[in-house]
Amino acid sequence: MKGSAHVFDQGSLSGDPLSILDQAGRLVAGYEVDGDDLRRLYESMVWIRTYDRKATAMQLQGRLATYSPFFGQEACQIGSVAALADGDWLAGTYRDAGAMWFRGYSWERLFLGRTGDERGGQPAEDVTVMPPSITVGGHMVHAVGLSWAEKMKGSGKIALTMFGEGATSEGDFHEAMNFAGVFHTPTVFFCQNNQYAISAPREIQTASDSIAQKALAYGMVGYLVNGNDVLAVREVTAAAAERARNGDGPSLIEAITYRRGPHTTADDPTKYRTSQEEDLWTERDPLERVRAYLADAGLWDEPWQTELEEAAGVAVETAVGAAEALPKLDAGNFFDAVFENPNPTLSDEKAAAARRLELGEA
Ligand SMILES: Cc1ncc(C[n+]2csc(CCOP(=O)(O)OP(=O)(O)O)c2C)c(N)n1
Q: Is the full-model pTM beyond 0.85?
């Protein structure tokens, strides 16, 4: 794709976010698109939406623990990590299964993780993806540490960390940003501003005009991008990744998006937002604008859509089957991983859990 030079500089940090493909699927002047490349991005977004739907359904069937859907955030999930190179690190949250999968963290392990099975928290050997952070903000410091280590090794690898706008109110965010700025680490901070931290709207999260402008306080470059536009997200992340790789330091990206589903399967968003607002963001769906562009260019049709959905469905079902077929772990195991020499309280708790398991209560 041919991009405009301004993307690579410190752009506007509030106001209109950068967009390449508008809501109707029209290209913003100055950009060209490689149709096959866009089809691949679209395919990945269809695949992760299929996973997200399945995981949501499985939670409602009692087969998974609480699940946090990323429905509506697929352009952020794919566009961000599509800009990374082999061996770069990803440290994301409970809502970033799409990005994790794109970087090689298998669906089987992701499903396992949501059943509380510790094997789901272990990425495969060659996968440079951290397990999802449930602690809001904690993983941002890990990403800075990972990228600092890569800098010391001179490997040319970088780390990208994904988080929500709510996480920017955590101390960890400021510590991570400060450390990254001072030590000039090759870190990309990618904030998915999906408008809500559970029921807390963006307006009460920070008094700043934008999240992106917080970059300035830490001596970084900031970017504000339309998070529902996969091309714009990738373009901006590629610019930030290139800066990091070239030794130009960390960046903060704010991607404006919307969580179309609930915070988790235990949440009811109708309690804190209107159906008019939801309808507005339905029109801005990240897959729809790409589909509109592709259809217009003769690169999308119904049979291809069906083919994509069927292939994704088979892959997801296979992963579920493999995860559910694994022999169950001994539920007492997790007590053994706490201390080398368990204290009396832990031993009592382990014995109590074993009794409950025997009685079929757990
Ligand atoms: C340190 C910490 N505090 C509180 C929580 C409970 N909690 C889980 S998700 C969440 C909201 C996070 O919102 P945001 O960072 O915007 O990400 P989003 O869930 O919208 O993707 C909170 C408060 C937690 N998991 N960890």
A: yes
